[in-house]
Q: What sequence folds into this?
C-alpha cells in the first residue's frame, strides 16, 4: 500500500511530541529509579569457597518448594473434579463440548478400552 500524506504528517507530529516529552520522561525515570533503590532486591553476591570455586548464595525462599493449595485432582479426559463437578476456571462452552463428546462415545461390549462414535 502507498503511504498517505495524512499518515506521514501524523508520524512527524508524533516525532515532534516525543522530542518535547523526552526530558520529562527521563526525569520521571530517574526519580523512579532513585525511589526504588531500597525496594528492589540487590543482585546476589558471588562468594568464593576455600578451594577457589565460585558459588552463588541461594535465598531461602527459592529453595523451599511451593505447596499445592488444593488437594482435588482433575481427570484430564473429562476435565471433571473427583466429586463429578467441573472446575471454576473451565468456561461453559468447553463444558458443553466435553459433555457432547462424552455422550457421543460409548464403550463397546467385550473390547475393553475401545470406543466408537454413535450414529
A:
Amino acid at each position: 500500500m502507498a503511504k498517505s500524506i495524512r499518515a506521514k504528517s501524523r508520524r512527524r507530529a508524533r516525532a515532534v511530541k516525543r522530542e518535547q516529552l523526552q526530558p520529562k520522561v527521563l526525569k520521571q525515570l530517574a526519580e523512579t529509579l532513585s525511589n526504588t533503590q531500597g525496594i528492589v532486591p540487590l543482585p546476589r553476591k558471588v562468594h568464593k569457597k576455600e578451594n577457589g570455586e565460585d558459588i552463588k548464595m541461594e535465598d531461602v525462599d527459592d529453595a523451599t518448594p511451593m505447596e499445592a493449595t488444593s488437594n482435588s485432582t482433575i481427570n484430564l479426559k473429562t476435565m471433571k473434579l473427583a466429586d463429578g463437578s467441573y472446575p471454576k476456571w473451565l468456561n461453559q462452552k468447553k463444558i458443553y463440548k466435553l459433555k457432547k463428546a462424552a455422550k457421543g462415545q460409548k464403550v463397546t461390549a467385550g473390547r475393553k478400552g475401545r470406543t466408537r462414535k454413535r450414529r
Residues 76-119 form one domain. Helices lie at 5-35, 60-63, 92-104.
